[in-house]
């Protein structure tokens, strides 16, 4: 008798959802990315009880068309990608169509949305655990979308308990992540608040439609932070010999140029930070985890300031053929083509930059 059978659909959904939404950070990340993808210029993230009771994300983006209500929370339904080949020309954060469907499986979840033509009328959408639309009702709403996630992991007792236990740490982690989205998103107002039980609502931070990342950093970390920063503007060519099989076509030549832009602490003792807690990395403006890159930055900085760590805001401008974002469901792990060579070139360029600023006088840069 055959012992191998397909896992029943509902169970597959739950297994996979737990991989997309692994913690509080994944919820905030997925929802804020959806707002940015919808063209929002104003995003409010509201935590209740550090996120344990609820996370609400409201935007003033395009809203959701009634024609999409039925499919919006179904797995692998997305407005952003239709074939695998589209991945290299992708301009959006999302493309897997998994976040909303996963949240249906893992929390008490609803959406309120209104498009420009809807006036002050919006629609509340409620869903089954499977992501199937359960019902709609008319509510008052401005243009945009509000997604409400209550009692995250309510049906995964182990994860819920773990979340309750570590909620303070999780909340700090989520703030750190949202700092990165706030700093990179120019022209956007991103504000984050938290309401603790029986307490007042506190604003964690807020940006203000700033035209550049420097003003975003000032809003998030305070104007004083800027005093210790220098512009990061590195440009280098990858060695042709380090790319086996590389041809000398024009296309290849353009993909070999790497630019890293942003801001970094001056390499001066007293101007770094006690801990490496303010370090943000991006690939073409997408916030990513880049431990190897962080290590390279910190190593070079240490040769000037051994007692402290730098503030780093580094955005890698890469040809879309030079990396792969589809490595993990949360898309925060990026596979960089020829990473070893890139890190070596980066260290040299960074050493040159620090050598230039070694003795310079700090200046307010706003
Ligand atoms: P993905 O972002 O990968 O497409 P999601 O599950 O996050 O998958 O979202 C599914 C779809 O729902 C999106 O493709 C988008 O069309 C729509 N959507 C989600 N959030 C918003 C929002 N805040 N505003 C407008 N549309 C949204
Ligand atoms: Mg998404």
From TrEMBL:
Lineage top rank: taxon: Eukaryota
Transmembrane stretches, start-end: none
Ranges of residues in domain DNA mismatch repair protein S5: 217-355
Record family assignment: Belongs to the DNA mismatch repair MutL/HexB family.
Entry protein name: DNA mismatch repair protein PMS1
Organism expressing this protein natively: Melanomma pulvis-pyrius CBS 109.77
Lineage: Eukaryota, Fungi, Dikarya, Ascomycota, Pezizomycotina
């Amino acid at each position: 008798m055959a012992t191998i059978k397909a896992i029943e659909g509902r169970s597959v959904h739950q297994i996979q959802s737990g991989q997309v939404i692994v913690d509080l950070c994944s919820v905030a990340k997925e929802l804020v990315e959806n707002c940015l993808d919808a063209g929002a210029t104003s995003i409010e993230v509201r935590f209740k009880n550090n996120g344990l009771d609820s996370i609400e994300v409201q935007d003033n983006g395009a809203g959701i068309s009634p024609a999409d209500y039925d499919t919006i929370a179904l797995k692998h339904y997305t407005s952003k990608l239709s074939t695998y080949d589209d991945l290299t020309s992708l301009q959006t954060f999302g493309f897997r169509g998994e976040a909303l469907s996963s949240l249906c499986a893992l929390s008490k979840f609803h959406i309120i949305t209104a498009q420009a033509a809807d006036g002050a009328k919006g629609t509340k959408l409620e869903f089954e655990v499977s992501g199937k639309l359960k019902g709609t009702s008319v509510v008052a709403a401005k243009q945009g979308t509000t997604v409400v996630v209550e009692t995250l992991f309510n049906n995964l007792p182990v994860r819920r308990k773990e979340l309750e236990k570590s909620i303070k740490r999780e909340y700090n982690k989520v703030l750190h992540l949202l700092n990165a989205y706030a700093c990179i998103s120019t022209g956007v107002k991103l504000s984050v608040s938290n309401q603790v039980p029986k307490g007042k609502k506190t604003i964690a931070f807020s940006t203000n439609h700033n035209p550049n990342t420097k003003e975003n950093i000032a809003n998030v970390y305070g104007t004083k932070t800027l005093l210790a920063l220098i512009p990061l503007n590195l440009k280098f060519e990858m060695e042709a010999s380090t790319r086996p099989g590389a041809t000398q076509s024009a296309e290849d030549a353009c993909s070999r140029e790497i630019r890293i832009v942003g801001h970094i602490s001056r390499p001066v003792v007293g101007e770094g930070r006690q801990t490496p807690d303010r370090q943000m990395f991006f690939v073409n403006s997408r916030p990513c985890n880049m431990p190897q890159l962080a290590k390279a930055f910190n190593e070079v900085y240490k040769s000037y300031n051994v007692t402290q760590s730098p503030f780093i805001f580094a955005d890698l401008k890469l040809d879309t053929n030079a990396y792969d974002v589809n490595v993990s469901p949360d898309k925060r792990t990026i596979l960089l083509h020829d990473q070893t060579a890139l890190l070596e070139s980066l260290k040299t360029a960074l050493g040159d930059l620090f050598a230039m600023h070694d003795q310079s006088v700090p200046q307010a840069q706003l």
